[in-house]
Amino acid sequence: MAGVLLESSGLHKTYRLGKVRVPVLRGLGLSITEGERIAILGASGSGKSTLLHLIGGLDRPDRPKDGVRASIRYRGEELVGRSARSLDAYRTRSVGFVFQSYHLLPELTVLENVLVAAMVGRGRLGFARERGTLEGRAKELLGGFGMGHRLKHRPAELSGGERQRVAIARSLVNGPDLLLADEPTGNLDTATGAAVLDQLDAIARASNQTMVMVTHDAAVAERADRVLHLVDGRMADDSEDGAASGEDTVGVSAEPSVGVSEADPG
Amino acid sequence: MYQALLTRRYLFRKLMPLLAAVAVALCTAMVLIVWSVMGGFLDRFIAQGRVMVGDVAIMWPTAGFAHYDDLVERLEADPEILAATPMIESFGVLVMPGDRRETVIVKGIDGPGFAEVTSYADTVWWKPLDEPLARDTKGEDVRTWDDWFLRNRAGWERDEKAGLSLTKTDAEGRPAPAVVLGIELTGANIRDPRGWYDPGAPLIRRGDGSSGYNTGFILDDRVTLHVVPLDAGGRAIEMVTRVFPVANEFQTGLYEVDSRAMFVRLDALQEMLGLDEARRLSGDVESFDPLATTIDPRTGEERFAAPPAEVVDPARVTTVLVRATDRERDPNELGEHVRSIYAEFAKAHPGQVPPAEGFGAIMIRTWEDMNRTMIEAVRKETGLVLFIFGFVSLTAVFLVLAIFWSMVSEKTRDVGILRALGAGRAGVAWLWIRYGIALGVVGSMMGGVLAYFVVSNLNEIHAWMGRALNIRIWDPSVYYFTEIPGGLEPTKAAIVLGAGVLASAFGAALPAVRAAWMDPVRALRFE
To answer: Number of Cβ pairs closer than 8 Å across A and B?
Structure first.
């Protein structure tokens, strides 16, 4: 039976817009099981991306609020309060990010864009030692996404769909346990988006990849094992409990779709 | 590792960093050129300062001192002295072909001896060349010609020999004293910036103010020298004039010397200045009566009174030049050593030569003493100019800073991406500092190449500027040397290029810190 990969609770995050404080996450909790594919559905500004950044170790939650301490436990180990260097290592080894705007480095070729993720976290010697393996893996991933013939092209020479495929290959090159995708089809037309998602699904299923994808598109969310609704910084389905305790928690689920509602585009 | 990859890509895919590299290149080239020229100027000055004076000069101007042969002998017997030679230094008026007249420094020398103490043999200009000069690719230097004014190689060899001995055969086939002139003295030689002279037929200015063309080669001509001998009190006696054939010309590279000095054979100048050996009668010559008699106190017999005795006044010179065996020896120590030898010499000739110490002592000057004011001035000026240009070059640091600041802004999203991939703050900072170093290396190398090109072709560039733009920065009459000195020293180049790289790294440091401390989430949202 699959175990819990990541568990979080009491996540608050507030941004400042000039003199105004805008709360984005309000005591949110989440539990992710290994191999699970979760979709977080929410409107723009509901805190979806912020949640990904927090559990991806790219950002830190607010300090304890009302006595409730934020917690993000990855494989049972607490991430909140860790040093920046430790979080860098966590992002390198355990997390892969896919962004809506692809975020490829424009000066690098397709192959280099994928390999750069492998270079980060490895020293010159470390990379040199594994270079053959890493290049092979990068080419394999790119080949799997139908990009094998465009290894030396630069991002500017690719279509949106191709760029996103490269970005997905980059996120997977280090073999992360957790793939975090932020609106991966947001900048693509429907057909291209569907094709990209098909490929992502195929890879995720084949490798039992844990994946959290945020989207505002219910059709995209439908592909997930579980769909969570994020409204105003809280999980919509547990708002009552969450309001009482100051946090929202979506139950741990080993089985797909248990304890959560299906995506409801209406 | 990713820093190396991105540095390479950023460096050659962006115009801005290349502009920063150009700024670094210009600054390093500027400092390197200035240092090379000023340093070359100083080195040349120090080196040339010894060309015509050796290491130490023993001087008693105007009246000169006698028994110099004994002094030379004593000096040359000392193991620390390689050679010594007598010389006379005076002033005169030289009348050259075309009636050109110049006031000149006249030096009476013994050619072979003078060549042992100084670099005289190297300075004699008109001589055969085994190989053309490096830049004379078209064979423009007449010394390589076989038909210049009836001169083939043997002819040039004769000229060289005449120059070294300051002797030429006269019309009757007898050897006669000759002169060797500074190469800039006649005005007939046109200096080519590539390193040789064209003794063509330039427009010359005559003494009466008119002008005309010189029609011959100076070595086939004669000059007239007027000198004024002085008595023991320094008063002028009567002008002495003599016509000399021109044996050769010399070039020291010091414009001041090459345009104002000439050499005459020592014995000829001694004769002209009344410094040669003289015989005179001692006693009361005026009232001597050849018929007067006297009684011999020993025999008591009457006999004719003795005539005044003939006394020989030995020849004199104003200077003895000395060359040390070890030329790297401290000049002051050497000077003191020479003084001690002179002291022994003075003891051997009491009352006949100036004393070694005390009031009215002989002057003993090292080559450094003689050039101290100028050498120190140039040394200070070099330091000052380097400081100023180094300070000006700080602009490169700020230029790199400004460009990197702007690039970090432009690359904000890249920083966010790298952080999302797990890059740490130190790694991101190192990326930009490394980028700065790479840019500094490229800029410094470009600057080094530029400086090498400019310094190696300084005189050609200057000549071109004169021809094309009518700009003449280097006036040899002001700066002593006939050509702009310079030469890129590896040590200096390494220091300046290293400083260029460091400056670039410093310029990149602040933007690097800024990039490192960017919030990755905000960076990712940067548009």
So the answer is: 72
